Amino acid sequence: MTDPHGRTTRRRASDQGQGAPDDDDQDLDLVERSLKASGCLELHYQVQACMVDHKDWRKCREPVQAFRECIQAHQNRKSSDPSTHGPISGATQ
Asked: How many degrees, rounded to 5, is the angle at CA 31 between CA 51 and CA 40?
């Protein structure tokens, strides 16, 4: 799989025909899978593209800010969802 910058992501040996699901996620690395799950992957690619084009993060403030807001919103959703938290330590059953 190729990202917007022409890089090819490598597949892990465990993903190459050994019972791995045949979907787009198997070609993504861990960071990209996390960003895809958060809904922020496209914004991540926009920041990368801007940095490639301008080579100066100060010229990429808008896409960086949009990416930060997306990640923050995801973290807020995640922290307010009790199903994403582990068991409470010291709790009795």
From this structure: 65
| Cβ pair 43, 67 in contact under 8 A | yes
Q: Is 27 helix (H, G, I), strand (E, B) or coil?
A: helix
25/33 Cα distance (integer angstroms) = 6
d(CA 54, CA 63): 12
Instruction: Give Cβ neighbours of residue 54 (< 8 Å, ≥ 6 apart).
Output: 60
Supply the pLDDT for residue 80. 87
Q: Mind listing the pLDDT tens digit for each residue in 27-62? A: 778 999 999 999 999 999 999 999 999 999 899 999
**Kind and range of the H or E run holding 72:** helix 61-80
Contact 4, 49 (CB under 8 A): yes
Domain ranges of the chain: 35-79
Residue 17: DSSP 8-state: S
